[in-house]
Amino acid sequence: MVRSSSKPDPPSRPVLFAVGTFVLGADSFVLAGSLPAAAHDLHLSVAQAGRLTTTSAPHLCDRVAADRGRHGPARPVPGARWRDDGNELSFHPEEDKEQIRMSTHETVRFTHQVTSAGPAQGMTFTGRRRLAESNEDVPLVVAVHGGGYTSAYFDVPGYSLLDRAAVLGVPIIAVDRPGHGGSSSVPANGSVFLAHAEALEHLIGELWQTHGAGTAGVVLIGHSIGVPISLAVAAHRPKWPLLGVAASGCLLREPEHFTGIWASIPDLTLRSPDDRKAELMFGPARTRRDDMPEAAYFANEPVVKAELVEISSSWHSLFQDLAPEISVPVHLRIGEYDALWIADDEQIAAFAAALTSSPSVDAAFFPAAGHAIDYHRAGAAFQTQQLAFALHCVARRLSETH
Q: Cβ neighbours of residue 354 under 8 Å, at least 6 residues apart?
């Protein structure tokens, strides 16, 4: 089924449910039947929906809590340092808050060296993860960040996809793409996106063996430039079990003026002032809370010129080659105020229509958000949609194999 929409979706049941739970109390909503209904809408168990609401309500209702004289959501320790325990780096609240910041002490920053034969053999990758007890009812989610960010994009305090996944008992790994964070660079004798996809496909194969055992398979979540890379992995049909791809902040064509701007960058990377970058990442002020965009500045890093040039010059043609080869469900959301893409009905419909081998495509605008949907007031609702999609991919696979 292919769905595209030019109108922002109405407030989702999870958002209204979270607000109601915070204000009225969980018992009232359970008795009223809204918990089972929300679980049904999200393809979750009632227990999972309850846990999700417990986490989402404080983030969605900061101002309600303040007005009622309650404490706002607990804030994490703002700084940390890492202890090297063999091949992993464990988290310890302490210092260096500008260089290392994470949503909670449960997040583990890790390093992984690829040892098996293949295109990424010998490469080192870094990232962040939140693991959970594996079972066949959940996927292993692997999140792929966009340009000008690292894996920290998915773990900003108060806006963390890792936190939200953990509430549902869904294991998640956010990786630093090649040349980002502490990950090794990879030579690109052509498409940067395809070179990154080849390396990440190999890496994820090893991560799947280490952390995916017992889960139903892998769901990729890609943001911005992470979308072409995630779709390229899907098009290659990896040996490990890929269940679906959730994408955001990417369509087919950028406004024409970006092509010249990106090509004229004099250096190999571009570090924009944080406030200038925020103008491209965010919607109007009313769409974000008072702590944004500053709360996400620590996650910024220089963007690679070659990635910007490729996304504006050749991504459209590459997508036409990749799309027919993608045989898993795809979920796409583009922010209502996304300033980096030509975002209209025609572009969304074209994106969806090209995915001819995908059994399910859900492509639509996301209301009240800019390019970085996660960082807006509606970010909790957006991340809930993505994780519900991931769990629905598991249900689809189980229905096909049992």
A: 319, 320, 323, 324
